[in-house]
Amino acid sequence: MLRHRADRLQGILNGVDYEAWNPATDKLIPANYAPEDLKGKEACKKALLEKMGAKVPVLTRPVIGIVSRFASQKGFDLISDVAEQLASLDLYVVALGTGEPPHEDLFRAMAAKYPDKFLVKIAYDNTLAHQIEAGADMFLMPSRYESCGLNQIYSMKYGTVPVVRATGGLDDTIEPFNGDAGTGFKFSEYSPQALLAAIRQALEVYRQPKAWQRLMQNGMKKDFSWPTSAREYLNVYQR
Over the stretch 204-224, which tens digit does the pLDDT of each residue have? Predict the structure, then answer.
C-alpha cells in the first residue's frame, strides 16, 4: 500500500540577489537608503513621480507600485474591477509592464482619464522597475496563483509594503501586520471587494507614520538571500 509521507514534502522559497536588489547600494535609484536611515526613500518617491509625469508631486499621497506581466493570472481582472474606486482615493498608481491587450488598454485608459493618479508605462524597463520598488510606498500583487514570486521580496527589501493575495509563495513570504510584527497586507478571497479592503487597510496604517515605519523596517530586515535558500536545499539533501 502506498502511503502519503507529508514529512517528505518540502517547499523552498526563491532566493533573491541582494547585490542587484538592495536600496543601500542600488546604482539605478536616485538615492540610497537603509532601515536605519530612510531619508533616501522620499527622494526616490519624488524622483519617480516626476519621471512618470505627475504635474505637482504630492509626497504625502501614497504610491501603489505595480511591476508585472499584465495577465489575468496576476490578478489584473481584479484591478480592472476596482480601478475607478482606486482613482477616487487619495493615492497614485504607478504601473510598469506589458501583457494581455485588455489589461494594457485598461491602464492606457485610466492614465488618459486620470493623468495625475494613474502613471503608466507599457514596456519592459529594468531601471524603472528598480525605481518603482524604491519610490513606491506599497506594492500590489493580487495574483490568482503564484508559485513564489520575486517582486514582493524585492519590495520588502526596499521598504515598499506588499499588498498581496494569500496564495502560494505570496502567502508564504508575507506576514500580516498586527501593529508591531508583520511585513505586509494579505487577502484570501479572490474578489475585487477583498482586494479593495486590503488596500484600504494598508492606507489606514499609512496614515500612522510610526506604525508605517515599523512595518517598512520589518520587511527590510528580512533575509530572502540565495545563501538562505541554499541552506534549505542542503538540509533537504542531508535528510
Answer: 999 999 999 999 999 999 999
d(CA 154, CA 219): 10
Contact indicator for 118, 108 with CB cutoff of 8 Å: no
Bridge partners, 164 (sequence order): 141, 186
Cβ pair 12, 229 in contact under 8 A: yes
Please list, in sequence order, all residues whose beta carbon lies within 8 angstroms of the beta carbon of residue 98, skipping any fewer than 6 positions away: 69, 70, 104, 122, 123, 124
pTM above 0.85, yes or no: yes
Sequence-separated (6 or more) residues with CB below 8 Å from residue 184: 152, 156, 161, 162, 163, 164, 174, 175, 176, 177, 215, 219
**Cα–Cα distance measured from residue 129 to residue 138, given in angstroms and rounded to the nearest whole number:** 14
Longest dimension (CA), the chain: 69
Residue 233 binned pLDDT confidence (cut-offs 50, 70, 90): confident
- State the Cα–Cα distance between residues 152 and 60, nearest whole angstrom: 23
Cell of 8: 517528505
Residue 129: in which H helix or E strand, if any? helix 126-135
Which H helix or E strand runs over 63?
Answer: strand 63-70
Q: How many CA atoms lie within 13 A of 35 on its CB side?
A: 11
Can you give the length of the chain in residues? 239
Query: Which cell numbers hold the place of 127?
Result: 531601471
